[in-house]
Amino acid sequence: AVTTLLWADLSNRYVWIATGVLVGCGLVGFYDDYLKLVVRNTKGLAPRWKYLWLSVVALGAALLLWVTAQTAAETTFFVPFFKSVALPLNMFGYVALTYLMIVGMSNAVNLTDGLDGLAIMPAVMVAVGLAIFAWASGNAIYAPYLGIPAVPGAGEVAIFCGAMSGSGLGFLWFNAYPAQVFMGDVGALALGGALGAVSV
Fold first, then answer.
1. Which of 20, 38, 109, 110 has its CA 20 to 30 A from that of 191?
2. Strand ranges inside the chain, DSSP E
């Protein structure tokens, strides 16, 4: 988050939304880890409360993305592997899809975390892939050439993804076997939620 705020264009709404999801999901994970490690509550945050707060973050981001959308491409579902299949989404469809991506990805990374280096390396690779697509989608020349939707300002998300992948590689050095540091829910929920937010 700090690296993004140092290097990204702070007038770009995508940067703020992605960083907000990262921090919001991270706070939910931090509280869960705090209960487990400091309070010594082995169950941590109850699943219903964790799900509720992740839902608040995801719905907030989804509604903000919908309300601030400036082009039709921003709220259209482009079906993978089919160049000409694009489904324009209404508010309910877009918010539901974004919600499922953010909450689903945050929990997917959280479930993957466990073995040394298991969650961070896929997160780094996905962040690099998303950075490339964000940069290309934000480029008015390459987007039409590659047949991907042109979304003005999306290229700035590449900085966010670069910061995420770079910090992930730094973390991997200490998380590889035998691990000296563990990701915990603070890292897993934050990374997964951020990847979900960037993907929409």
1. 38
2. 76-78, 86-88
156 contacts 15 by C-beta, under 8 angstroms? yes
The answer to whether residues 136 and 148 touch, using CB atoms and an 8 Å cutoff, is yes
Other CB atoms within a 10 A radius of the CB of residue 187 amount to: 26
- Across residues 107-114, what is the average pLDDT? 88
Q: Are 161 and 15 in contact (CB under 8 A)?
A: no
Measured in degrees and rounded to the nearest 5, phi and psi for residue 192 equal -65, -45
Q: Which residues pair with 113 in a beta bridge?
A: 115
Neighbour count for residue 167 (Cβ, 10 Å) = 19
C-alpha dihedral, 98 to 133 to 15 to 114, nearest 10°: 70
The percent of residues in the chain predicted with pLDDT above 90, rounded, is: 80
Report the SS3 class of residue 136. helix
- The model's pTM is 0.93
The pLDDT value given to residue 178: 83
- Residue 24: partners with Cβ closer than 8 Å, 6 or more residues away: 56, 57, 60, 61, 193
Question: How many Cα atoms are found within 13 Å in the side-chain-facing hemisphere of 48?
Answer: 0
Q: 3-state DSSP call for residue 77? A: strand
Percent helix, percent strand, percent coil in the chain, to nearest 5 = 70, 5, 25
Let me know if 128 is exposed, middle or buried by CB neighbors in 10 A (0-12, 13-18, 19+): middle
Q: Please say whether the beta carbons of 186 and 153 come within 8 A.
A: no
Going by the DSSP 8-state scheme, the letter that residue 71 receives in this structure is S
What is the largest distance, in Å, between two alpha-carbon atoms of the chain? 55
